Amino acid sequence: MVHRLIGTTLALATTAVLATAEEQQNALTIEDFKLEAILSSLLILIVVIWYSGSSANGTKAKEWVASHIVFLEQQFAVVGNKAEKTTLVKDGPADYFLYVTDDAMCNLATGGSRSDLVGWVFALVLSLFGYADKPADKLVMDVTLDKEMDKAFVFAILPKDTAQSTRDGRFDLKTFTRLADSPKLPSNLVVYTEAQKLADQILSTKVSELISNSPDFKSLIITSQPDYEQEKYQGDQELKFHLTGDLSNRKEMVELACLLPDVLGDLQLAADTKSKLKKNREELEKKAAKLLADERAEELARKKADAKKAEADRVKSLSPAEQRKWEEKERAREIKKSQKKRTKRS
Q1: 311 φ/ψ angles, rounded to the nearest 5 degrees
Q2: How far is the C-alpha of 244 from the C-alpha of 257, rounded, in Å?
């Protein structure tokens, strides 16, 4: 009896010891939260970078507007959104738009990639191999000119190192322009135009001076054609220009954007230049007309084939007597058709 009691006591003690050891083994420590701590820290870091980057972008954009607002208000009747009583319109953490209206509608995008650390690093790596521009604050001005302006042409000033790829990637530049002489511009820029005289007229104004004196200038594209090939050629659209550069407090880029509408409006194209522009469009219209005629011919041939097949299927469903009657009718129609052809020849 005593032995049984001792054995039972020892068993219970052993079970208690094992349970205590298991509890100690399963007790949570700070080491168990290492992964959660790392992920939480990364999340906090991302939020901090996003917020600080977004705030820095806003500050940069506001500084740019403050340095140019007086000049812009002298040039345009309306600067900013008067209805909402705001000058800048935020479009995401890195983009801000400034709308000005008068003879033209201009939208201006500013901002960098400070709020997107991963994107910034990725773009920086690609830029080292020439596949992307180095991350930087950029200025983009898009201006659509007065609808009553009767000018229609394509013209571009592009960086020499990326000019060919830019031209090949745009329908308007690839289709209408050729490389032109540009002695009034820095050697790192090239000009594409529909006519040399057109380039000479534009660059004989203050445009070439502002571009030459602006370290911020990147590119200028003036076009009345879409940048992508449409399913059906629709001719010239409203003349507009796309001006890009680095963001800074220098005045040349803003002056250039304000000068261009006047320069383009005052252009007096020579007769041979107009003839060249007209020829370029007539060639494209002929190609579009031929393409349309080919498409119509294909559609007509397809409809005839479908009708012939449907008739053959119908005849198969007829009785033998009805099929013989149909064949006789077809032979008579073919004979009559051949007789008409002989009559026309004679």
Answers
A1: -65, -40
A2: 10
Record the pTM.
0.71
* Residue 299 DSSP class: H
Tell me phi and psi for residue 9, to 5 degrees: -65, -45
Measured in whole angstroms, the distance separating CA 293 from the mean position of its chain's CA atoms is 31
DSSP at 86: B
Q: Contact 222/264 with Cβ under 8 angstroms?
A: yes
In sequence order, the β-bridge partners of residue 182 are none
pLDDT digits (tens, 9 = 90+) for 233-253: 888 999 999 999 888 888 899
Contact criterion met (CB below 8 Å) for 242 and 220: yes
Residue type, 134: K
- Residue showing tokens 């050697």: 187
- Identify the pLDDT of residue 219: 95
Structure-block tokens of residue 230: 């449409």
Closest CA to 92 of 53, 47, 120, 65: 53
Start-to-end C-alpha separation, the chain: 138
Average pLDDT of the chain to the nearest whole number = 80
The residue among 194, 188, 327, 180 whose CA lies nearest residue 269 is 194
Residues 121/128, Cβ–Cβ less than 8 Å: no
Enter the DSSP assignment of 84: T
Q: How far is it, in rounded angstroms, from Cα 235 to Cα 34?
A: 64
- Sign (positive or negative) of CA dihedral 68, 70, 75, 79: positive
Residues 6+ apart with CB under 8 A from 232: 288, 292
